[in-house]
Amino acid sequence: MFAPALLAWYDKHKRNLPWRRTKDPYKIWVSEMMLQQTTVNAVIGYYDRWFQMFPTVGALAGAGVEKVLKAWQGLGYYARARNLHKAAQVVVREHHGVLPRDPAVVRALPGFGPYSTGSVLSIAYDLPLTIIDANVRRVAMRLLALQGHADTKQDRKIGGFLQTIFPPKHAGDFNQALMELGALVCRSKEPLCILCPVIKFCRAFARGRQEIIPKPKQRMIKDVAAVIAIIRKGNKFFIQQRPAKGLLAGLWEFPGGKIRAGEGRARALAREIREELNVSLKTADYLFQVTHFYTQFKVNLSVFLCATAPLPKADEAHKWVNLKSIHQYPMPSGSAKIVRELEKINGIMVSRC
Fold this sequence. Notes:
Layout: H1 2-13, H2 25-35, H3 40-53, H4 57-62, H5 65-72, H6 79-95, H7 103-107, H8 114-125, H9 134-144, H10 155-165, H11 171-184, H12 203-206, E1 222-233, E2 236-241, E3 252-253, E4 256-258, H13 265-277, E5 281-293, E6 297-308, E7 318-321, H14 333-344
Parallel strand pairs: 1-6
Antiparallel strand pairs: 1-2, 1-4, 2-3, 2-7, 5-6
Helix pairs in contact: 1-11, 2-3, 2-8, 8-11, 9-11
């Protein structure tokens, strides 16, 4: 039988991860949100720190959004943190601080989709809910020898198949076992079929097609060039907050933006300062370049020390901060890299003493 073989393998070979040592729905919920679009190794450190800051749903619900974003800084996809915060407030307000067991109710919470609802509720409450993530999709496509790319177009067939192999008990372990099999054995490249506990059920292996199922996607990484303005007044630096909606919403950063087609760095810098701050650029001295990778593109940030016409007075979305206090503000990873570089430069670095 498929399920007993997979569960026996999982019990013996599963990784010892912190969120697998608890049945606390809140901790499982946080871990599943962190693991979306983020590697296990990256999440482990954040997981422990998160519960030092927000040990309960109530603590998270009562925290300010900037504190939540700061705790999330570096994990990316910050909408996950905002939705966690919003959902925690709903759970405290409407469900006495306990994540509901009803899938329909959970599905209506901010940040929950079909996958996260199924994963959290099956693991926390052992509800018999199937899930499909990238690992499960790849495993199922090989088991069924499905042709094509591993995308959501395959999910109807995969969902039906999962229902046929789903065990009557241990739903959470079964879902985690499928994901673990995809992560450790049924890998996207060089699958370790000899170690697979369910190899006799695999049609792709039987046909010698496990290396080409799913069909590989051509991944194009786009290069993006941008300019960043470091504006200094004494020992303080100017930062601004991004709008409340959109990419990197609510995070703090230095002024700047993308270089447009046919535009040089100096011209782009002057335009960005004029558009964002409504002042003119007087001088700009090149400092350094920082490169940051996102899922689909690479950003090359050219950083300049700038002098401008007088800036508007500081307000809720515009601050003058020194390099010691700047760490209190949640920033995109690229901006955080710039801060670290600034701290290394003797001519600009401000002593933390």
